[in-house]
Amino acid sequence: MARTTGSDGGRTEAAIREAAINLIARFGYEAVSMRQLAAEVGVQAAALYRYFPNKEDLLFTLMREHMEDLLKDWDQARPASADPQARLAAFVRNHIRFHVVRRHSTHVSNMELRSLSRDNLSHILRLRGGYEKELRQILREGADSGAFRIDDVGLTAIAIIQMITGVIVWFRPDERLSVEEVAETYLTMTMRLTGAEEIREKPHVHAHA
Amino acid sequence: MARTTGSDGGRTEAAIREAAINLIARFGYEAVSMRQLAAEVGVQAAALYRYFPNKEDLLFTLMREHMEDLLKDWDQARPASADPQARLAAFVRNHIRFHVVRRHSTHVSNMELRSLSRDNLSHILRLRGGYEKELRQILREGADSGAFRIDDVGLTAIAIIQMITGVIVWFRPDERLSVEEVAETYLTMTMRLTGAEEIREKPHVHAHA
After folding, report:
1. pLDDT in tens, chain B (209 residues)
2. Where do the HTH tetR-type domain residues begin and end (chains A, B) (predicted)?
3. Candidate from A170, A193, A195 with C-beta closest to B158
4. Where in chain A is the domain with CATH 1.10.357.10?
5. Which of residues 152-181 of B touch A (CB under 8 A)?
6. A1-53 architecture in CATH?
7. In DSSP terms, which residues pair with B5 in a beta bridge?
């Protein structure tokens, strides 16, 4: 069902999504009932079923849209530059910016893969694979061109994604650092991890030699 | 209650722990009932309450023992060497080795902080803080001595722990890599991330210059 915000139905559907993400992030998918969700939104359970035929369909929709939004977001943020370091920087900044404002949704997406049926799980894993592939491609091209030093492109991509997604576990907007500052610190760590920092600094060192 | 494996009571208690970790990892704490857990272990619900007065006490015990075991484990693995790079290497190897064989327990420990009462949460966070402090200390001393290049010791410690704990999400013993190979790859990434790789390599580069 399309998200037609503005109409009453659109507003109800958006309220269902938001309440579902918050409840599932707090209690876990298995512990949340459609009845409880309806009460949270302030509608009859029957109204819920008009938007989502069953609880797993609701979970699948939330997780699918999370990944589709992330892919769309990266598609728009992707820089025109072919430089692997510029592309990696854009990837890290965009990933952190996207996830810190979707803390609960990210939490649900990472936690509740266990609760999906096999077909739905395959679908979500394909979307995740597509996103990870973007990073693997940046890393591989950078490794080939000498912009990065990487031993295992697959493991490095997973390690970077887990490291930068980890921001949502501890980051709160009222922390000592802004999102931008956190993103820059994580970017520096990513650049070191991929050897980019070292490679970038070498010409500077040589200029003084 | 002490873990007296060998006695009937000890065996029952160990079976409760194991079943609880598996059920909570699969369904989430809120969705698992003491009745369901008793059925899984094959005892009456009343027998469960002899070991754990209530469900949160059981969760707290599982999470507390996970952290106490980790701290004890690191205490034994901690190298005599004062060299920050050797200590960081030991920390990373030990962390990965400890967690890959406790995948469900790690999952529960990371996920179910949300389900602890305030006092129990404080207790667990203190234990976690104590463990993270070990890493922060290694990083700080290495940064001071010039063995590492680190911008923010606190963020770097969190980033490393999240990156290396992330192994449990995808690693299975039948993967293309052994635990030891995975640990070495993650160690190389950690050494790059902290600038240790670069610093370690410099004398080599200079020798050829």
Report:
1. 444 446 788 899 999 999 999 999 999 999 999 999 999 999 999 989 999 999 999 999 999 999 999 999 999 999 999 999 999 999 999 999 999 999 999 999 999 999 999 999 999 999 999 999 999 999 999 999 999 999 999 999 999 999 999 999 998 877 788 999 999 999 999 999 999 977 776 654 444 43
2. 10-70
3. A170
4. 54-208
5. 152, 155-156, 158-160, 162-163, 165-166, 169-170
6. Orthogonal Bundle (1.10)
7. B7
